[in-house]
Amino acid sequence: xxxxxxxxxxxxxxxxxxxxxxxxxxxxxxxxxxxxxxxxxxxxxxxxxxxxxxxxxxxxxxxxxxxxxxxxxxxxxxxxxxxxxxxxxxxxxxxxxxxxxxxxxxxxxxxxxxxxxxxxxxxxxxxxxxxxxxxxxxxxxxxxxxxxxxxxxxxxxxxxxxxxxxxxxxxxxxxxxxxxxxxxxxxxxxxxxxxxxxxxxxxxxxxxxxxxxxxxxxxxxxxxxxxxx
Amino acid sequence: xxxxxxxxxxxxxxxxxxxxxxxxxxxxxxxxxxxxxxxxxxxxxxxxxxxxxxxxxxxxxxxxxxxxxxxxxxxxxxxxxxxxxxxxxxxxxxxxxxxxxxxxxxxxxxxxxxxxxxxxxxxxxxxxxxxxxxxxxxxxxxxxxxxxxxxxxxxxxxxxxxxxxxxxxxxxxxxxxxxxxxxxxxxxxxxxxxxxxxxxxxxxxxxxxxxxxxxxxxxxxxxxxxxxxxxxxxxxxxxxxxxxxxxxxxxxxxxxxxxxxxxxxxxxxxxxxxxxxxxxxxxxxxxxxxxxxxxxxxxxxxxxxxxxxxxxxxxxxxxxxxxxxxxxxxxxxxxxxxxxxxxxxxxxxxxxxxxxxxxxxxxxxxxxxxxxxxxxxxxxxxxxxxxxxxxxxxxxxxxxxxxxxxxxxxxxxxxxxxxxxxxxxxxxxxxxxxxxxxxxxxxxxxxxxxxxxxxxxxxxxxxxxxxxxxxxxxxxxxxxxxxxxxxxxxxxxxxxxxxxxxxxxxxxxxxxxxxxxxxxxxxxxxxxxxxxxxxxxxxxxxxxxxxxxxxxxxxxxxxxxxxxxxxxxxxxxxxxxxxxxxxxxxxxxxxxxxxxxxxxxxxxxxxxxxxxxxxxxxxxxxxxxxxxxxxxxxxxxxxxxxxxxxxxxxxxxxxxxxxxxxxxxxxxxxxxxxxxxxxxxxxx
Lengths: 229, 684
Known about the structure:
CATH superfamily of the domain at 153-223 and 238-284 and 303-363 in chain B: YVTN repeat-like/Quinoprotein amine dehydrogenase
Shape of chain A: elongated
Largest interface: A-B, 41 and 34 residues
Number of domains of chain A: 1
CATH topology of the domain at 153-223 and 238-284 and 303-363 in chain B: Methylamine Dehydrogenase, Chain H
Largest sheet of chain B: 8 strands, mixed
CATH topology of chain A: Butyryl-CoA Dehydrogenase, subunit A, domain 3
CATH class of the domain at 153-223 and 238-284 and 303-363 in chain B: Mainly Beta
Oligomer: heterodimer
Number of strands of chain B: 46
Structural class of chain A: alpha+beta
Strand content of chain B: 35-45%
């Protein structure tokens, strides 16, 4: 016996083919999938992405924080400034996404919880949308930013002087006297953390349930062989 | 074939997957390091350390400019680098400018003007907006327009004898009025004309919890704002002290809960409210117990001589808690719309007592704990210190002489604690945290630091009731202000000498000279007071000032919500909060305009009406950014508003002139500020 800690060492899980596994082997993937669901749901309350603008007359800077379901921060002031450039109000980009986001994220969380109860390879299919979610978020944000920089109203005060542009998804940019910094925020961090935890969960899930599936298969095959015999 | 191909009993999962776990957690850590936004913030570069390294040319520079080591000390004490904020804020009266000044201490930078009794266009006060209503409420008999005032003594609101930074009050000596300024936006919210009084001086002083704002009188007049010839001075003329009840929630004085006390016509002067042990009492000095009525042209002694004949005048001692009871019991007469406690009632009820004070006194300043009242001699080189305890002991003993009006006079030897000889012309006294008092010496042009006795004697090395130092100031000091210097716990640190004359201190700008505010360092004990800074006041003639800790002031950065009515301190339900709702509506001959204001446009930009229309015009500044103020000037109609972020204002006028007019933003708001304009077309 090797050193190490495990729950209820005296309890064994006996598979249909008679092989035994530790109880912990089955608790770990369930716990991880549920932890991932928790991380994902928590991320609703945190900003995913932010844009900070700095200019001499804004010593504290202007910051717009993007949450999955709303915008926060100096939206009003950024809109007030952007109207000179003929840019649409920030609120106009991603309205559909924001309206669906709460339902979608809760659904993703429920899929993960469902994965706890699916003891075969289909659990991975259920978890797949969660893995894709932060990537979809970033791709969508990129698209919104592209559209935003390409919807300049030529009738605005400075609209005629601005070439269409795509604001950077991450990193620094410059618009007039404003230096901008776009950066991911904690909510997106949690979503990515959820992805990692899901992948770990799936790994342990496979480690725990592959033997079960295999054992069942073996038992079935054995029964078929015996019947034939 | 055996079913049990694998047996893993006893083997632990963590052993199998240790490598994977390590990879997983490492990934998480790397992820956190790379993605965590806080990590990205760049560290500051080449920051100079404070307090290290005098520049190599400092000595040369000081030599060239003729600066002594004291000058360099003063410069280092007062210089304020860009972006650093003053720890204290001084609120000074503006005298006959009818305004107030807000000044940072120790930098002595003017931070802003507060329009109070005088229309002031930068703040859009009295040019069509809310200020018009405030000013109008202060007209005499609701008729006589007044467009100036003589502001004298600011009184910051107090809680438990400490400034609470919520409100400041100020009097208009010229017309006996009082104003309430809300320190959330530093704007005047209320002006009240004091009934029955033609002028006032001994205000404003607040009771320790701002239950009352005390407004003392000055020159006596026939009670009830009426007429009586001067030969009836003794019988018909009276002084009046007003106790204005303050409603903190409404932020307004409530005249219905306020009362006045009738006084002999002795020209009551400065007052102070008791605090600590003397809470519930108030003190005012007076300077015409001679009942002089002037008439130099008739061969009578002029006022300056007539009022200074007697060796003593009377310190008035009020039991205001008792007066409040008498008022609530209804033992009052309604005169000029306010409850007045008649003189006889005040005597009978034990509300009013006198004690002699050296001739032509000035100031009546209660010590931080409320134990003593200090009265300056003005024409006597002493300050006289009265003991509240002695006054109370004497009152218990009773058996007093009375003055001509029947007011009991407590003999001076029964009330006086001490007299300290300071020099010529002692006027006003403020206090610090080390048991010192500071008295302005008008004739000596000096600030006297002297040591208090009694419970204060242990706080300083000198014996109690002794002069410590006289510091020359330039020139003719009137009032004196100290950091929280008239509260229950003064801060020390700074005193400001409010000098009436500056003579040669500044470059000559013509025969009307600025006043000179001089900052004095009082941080060290003994004779270590030092002059730090001269500040010319070239737009006002301040009397008193108070200095409050800056962090007690909690002013709005912008109005809390868009559509804010600064009069009601709430959102105006009529305000338009989005340009889509801006519009012009006509009902008969009344045209109502709802206009939004934001960088760099008004919505709408055209307003077309007919001559003779009555115009109601609502304007809302939609901005939420600090300092994004817009003006609104309507040329030809004497209208100019200051619309601070979120502010809503309504103007109302008759379109008496036809023609083409413009309205434009008067506050330089943006690069396209000049383009922020609209046409106001009035068809003939």
